[in-house]
Specification:
This protein is of the alpha+beta class. Helices cover about 35% and strands about 20% of the residues.
Length: about 450
Amino acid sequence: MSELLDETTEVTQQLIRNACVNDGSPTSGNEMKSAEMLASYFDGSGVDLEIYEPLPGRGSLVATIEGSDPTAPTLLLMGHTDVVPVNEDDWQRDPFGGDLVDGEVWGRGAIDMLCLTGSMAVAVRHLAASGWRPKGTLKYLAVADEEAGGEFGARWLLAHQADAVRADYCITEAGGFDLPLSSAGGPKLPVMVAEKGVYWCTLRVRGTPGHGSRPFRGDNAIVKAGEIIRRLSEYRPATVVPDVWRGFVEGMELAPELGAALLDPNGIGQICETATDASYARFVHASTHTSMAPTMMRAGTKANVIPDRARLQLDIRTLPGQTENDVEAMLADALGELAGSIDIHVDTHDPSTASPMQTPLWDTIQRVSCRLVPGAQIVPFLATGASDARFFRAFGTAAYGFGLFSDRLSFTDYSARVHGDDERIDQASMALCADLWPAVARDLLDAS
């Protein structure tokens, strides 16, 4: 186990206990608690610290170890401190207790992504306290508001304080986990080199108000919304094979029959429909399809009033190369004749982004991963969710998602725990991450 494990565990527990819950409203999150806690943790280590607060309570911390060569590259280790809301009644343990039980730390955000945020902080502090002075600059960003789109975090920092966080290379969440695919050779560890686009929209549905006791032949906005939900759930977007998916499948060195199926639209469709492992089917489907998920609905004013308005929010994730026009066409196809009677408001649209693989950071991750996980090979991967990496790619930063997770954490467990009940992370994974970041920093920045 890593000599930094105990400290990484403690910092991660503290981040969980800060309960920086982000419900999407400007006044939620309160990430300043974690920014100030981490600033106290770094105190005396020799790193340069700065906290940025675009709104009261929405704090992000930047810690810097300045390099000796201004022409050498800068590496940014970025972890967010906010977490998504939780229904405490559905948890076996206190979701904000940070309990250590049987080698696992429990709590909301343990996997997404406080174990990485915490281990990055520990690595940077120990590198600085040891007197390490690299050629290239190392930065650490504990960022706010990732879970609600980054408006008061990464997006704001790059718009208002770009020099503080600008970097040639960036690592954030997530990768390095076990995959439900049997491949030749040693372990295959995914690196998020690209991610799907975010298209969040609100569908406004109108009906006619009336008395709840006389619904027959009425015009109920909730009933219309229900029909819209049904059509969206049954809609099947076309299968697409993005370049990053092709690179992933080829890099996995799968059995020839399976590899061919995963590169053929018909084979992909059959796998998605018939796979007995639901998490595997969701993973394949999300990597090769635009997804449309109804996630929130608001309607009605009183129990005995037929609602005349309903608002349905959709979480749509787009593949590389897809545009807003493509999404509009898919929505029209899915909704049919109902499309003309619905007002669609686009809340957020960030297209899919990607970083090149031919970089010194890619080579560094390969060398370090092979040392920490013998025989490992990294493979490119398309993140089906969004991360703050997309903002940095727009600034020319080669941004990857990576980490290291032990074989104690299966892909099914990983998928279920992210934003799910009983989220927790094993200490073996935390130990791997604690050793990963110093090794990456030294390999990339000392050799610059």
